[in-house]
Amino acid sequence: MTRQLRIEPDGVAIDAVAHDTILQAARRGGVVLAYECGWGSCGACKVTLVEGQVELMYPGAPAVNPRDARRNRILACQSRAISDVTIARGPGEWSAPTPRCVEQQAILRGIADLAPEIRQFSFETAEPIDFRPGQYAILHLGDGLRRCYSMCNLPGTNILQFIAKRYEGGRGSNTLAALALDAGITIEAPFGACTLRRQPGRKVFVAGGTGVAPILAMLREAADAGLDFGAPVDVIYGARAPADLAAGDMLEAAIARVAQARYLPVVEAAPSDWPHASGFVTDAIRTTIPDPAAAEFYVAGPPVMVNAVKSLLRGADVPITQVHYDAFG
Q: Is residue 153 within 8 Å of 129, Cβ to Cβ?
């Protein structure tokens, strides 16, 4: 069954299949709505429901609030059309070119242990899925279970690689960890706007835990493209302990191929012989970036870490246009 999705002020009409969210249907139709997280946390994808009815897939989404309901504002990433629907998109959509979102079956072809409870998963799709380094996919793990993971590899092949941690009691992470080689799942991609802006200038990449995946992909992009930003490039990677710096070797290999780039690992529980910084990534920013407002930041990791970095940068008067982040959790 399909519903007609009409998008104003463009006047574009799209056939939305029953399981598509408003965001998915728009992207399949070539219309790029504003969005960031894709799971109802940031609120960037809110649009006005002009006509028709929708169902909210995730009523507990952090960005849902009563004020929006009174104004007919809905989350495009969590709303499905249950009748023909007309929406009005607001200003501020991300206008950079982005690949069209697709959905494909994928086969798990490789699993590599990177750190305690952290693995790299390699999935093969029938056709290459185009994406921009820094973007992420939604993995459909069965029984309505959907989780977001960033690609850590580069586009151009039919392989998608993800770095994921298994959490005690985590339904999604345990389901992913339990997959056997050659198991099949559905992958939907790409999502996300935390992608590399190639203009010259100082860059600071900040990763926490498995948030290293999109940071690694962007640095691989810079390395493969031979980009020279004409300024220092600092890569801060934080974790609980040295053993938890899951992709440190891969990150260092990419950094070594980027002009003026340096690697700054930081751990909370530093042993006595640890030769690098200890503490949190925010401590590393304070001690190594003397003028944050002169840099562009890329941040990925646990929401609590991302929020702490954003708060620090806001206090340092870093313009929001210079802060690109990924915090879908």
A: no
pLDDT for res 105:
97
Q: What is the C-alpha separation between 322 and 303, in angstroms, rounded?
A: 18
The whole-number pLDDT of residue 17 equals 87
DSSP letters spanning 265-303: EEESS--TT--SEES-HHHHHHHH-S-GGGEEEEEES-H
Residue 237 phi/psi, 5° resolution?
-125, 115
Superfamily (CATH) of domain 2-88: Beta-grasp domain (3.10.20.30)
Structure confidence at residue 255 (pLDDT)? 98
**SS3 assignment, position 201:** coil
The number of residues in the chain equals 329
What's the rounded mean pLDDT across residues 138-150?
91
The amino acid occupying position 92 is: G
Q: Closest Cα to residue 2, out of 22, 16, 21? A: 16
**Maximum alpha-carbon separation in the chain:** 64
pLDDT at residue number 27: 77
Q: Tell me the pLDDT of the chain averaged across its residues.
A: 91
The whole-angstrom separation of Cα 239 and Cα 171 is: 22
Contacts of 91 (CB under 8 A, 6+ apart): none
Does the domain made of 102-191 have the CATH classification 2.40.30.10? yes
What is the residue extent of each domain of the chain?
A: 2-88, 102-191, 202-326
Q: Using a pLDDT cut of 90, give the percent of the chain over it.
A: 75
Residue 93: pLDDT above 60?
no
pLDDT for res 91: 56
Identify the pLDDT of residue 295: 97
Q: Does domain 202-326 have CATH number 3.40.50.80?
A: yes
- List Cα–Cα distances, 240 to 20, 262, 265, 270, 281, in angstroms: 38, 21, 11, 8, 11
Assign 127 to helix, strand or coil.
coil
Q: pTM for the complete prediction?
A: 0.78
